[in-house]
Amino acid sequence: MDWARWLRAGDHLVCSHMSSEPVALLQSLAQSLTESLTESLASSAPPLPLHLMLGVPFSDAAQALPSDCEITVYGGMGSASRLAQARPVHLSPLRYSLCAQVYQQGLWPVDVVLVSLARNAEGHLYLGASHGPALAAARRARHVIAEVNAQSPCVSGARWPDDIPLAAVLEVDHEPAPVRQSAPSQVEQAIAGHVAALVPDGACLQVGIGALPSAMLTALSSHRHLGVHSGMYTDDLQALVDAGAVDHSRKTRDPGVAVVGCVVGSRSLYRSVHQHSAVCLRSPDLTHDAAFIAGIDDFFSLNSAIEVDLLGNVNAEAVLGQDARWRHVGGVGGLPDFVRAAQCAKRGQSVMALPSRSAGQQPRIVARLSGPCTVAASDADLICTEYGVARLRHASLDQRVRSMLAIAHPQDRDALAMAAHGLGLV
């Protein structure tokens, strides 16, 4: 790839991300920049500075980019946490519902867009397994450069527009990013049992990814007529379809179809969604739009958190290291969007689930958050641990404290009660 033909000094690059990360293009760019950097140092000429928006990367391809490249990610999701440990990165707290709008409205700069696409048997191009902001950015970019992955699925609703030309195309053949997650623990299974009791038949689900969300979905296998409107479509959601639990039949918007922003999982999942009419990929300004989701009756947002305080403030972004610095392992993502949407929907509910203690036996129900506040207490609804469910939506401050103490680890409750008293909450 002749990158010197397409790039200029100071360019802002936007990449498709998650399961449509342009891994081969990033590897090629890193090699080219490393070689040009070596040459520029030898000639005393300044290196070519670039700015890359990676979004949520799943691979480690960006680690090979030269240190003078500025990289921005949406948080610590995917491989971004590893990337941030290896080199400086910028962290954006942008809500995911706005990630395309900032390019549509010209609020964020874009010069070149790198995308990973799929091609069907008729030769038509698709966005692959993930939507995101890249398409909106492409409409304002000087150049769009694509890798076309022979193993990437063509997902319904994500046809590449004919009016956006591709400046260069790289043909590749590699498996889209697989997601491997550990089996849920007994504590996570207990939490999942409490969550399953909250979800009625016919509910429309939004769910995150990880061992706890996986356990929550597994616990719903005996439910019926569930639907899906979610940021991600995973193997666990497909398993509910196969079990007869999900048929999308009662969705008040897009009945019969799972509307999602990204498909991520196993090779068999990518095969199953390929040109399947029951799974539709849509843009972030629809998948995460609270006003749109509010029209979906019985919308249930099922997510996990790092810690929740006694009033219901949620940290889903960072853990506090031994050096008293935040280490970002999550992000804002679509969490605030889905939480608010669930409370606006008829009979909708938002569930925030977490173990009462970490694997290292640190309390996760806390008096004050040790990390950033991702969801404010004013938006709190249902908080769930292995000890039960705290219903906070219409509760007063003292009622919230009592409810949260009841679901904290028994050995933490006395200290939390004392802290609540010291803060004047009870």
What are the defining features of this structure?
426 residues, alpha/beta, Glutaconate Coenzyme A-transferase, eight-stranded mixed β-sheet, globular
Topology summary:
Blueprint: H1 3-6, E1 12-15, H2 23-43, E2 51-55, E3 70-73, H3 80-86, E4 90-91, H4 101-104, E5 112-119, E6 125-126, H5 134-138, E7 143-149, E8 168-172, H6 186-198, E9 204-207, H7 211-218, E10 227-233, H8 235-242, E11 258-263, H9 267-273, E12 279-281, H10 284-287, H11 290-293, E13 299-304, E14 307-309, E15 314-315, E16 318-320, E17 326-328, H12 335-344, E18 349-353, E19 365-366, E20 382-385, E21 388-391, H13 397-407, H14 413-422
Parallel strand pairs: 1-2, 1-5, 2-3, 3-4, 5-7, 7-8, 9-10, 9-13, 10-11, 11-12, 13-18, 14-19, 18-20
Antiparallel strand pairs: 5-6, 14-15, 16-17, 20-21
Helix pairs in contact: 6-7
What's a concise summary of this model?
The chain has 426 residues and is α/β, with parallel strands linked by helices. The chain has helices at residues 3-6, 23-43, 80-86, 101-104, 134-138, 186-198, 211-218, 235-242, 267-273, 284-287, 290-293, 335-344, 397-407, 413-422; strands at residues 12-15, 51-55, 70-73, 90-91, 112-119, 125-126, 143-149, 168-172, 204-207, 227-233, 258-263, 279-281, 299-304, 307-309, 314-315, 318-320, 326-328, 349-353, 365-366, 382-385, 388-391. 27% of the residues lie in helices and 21% in strands.
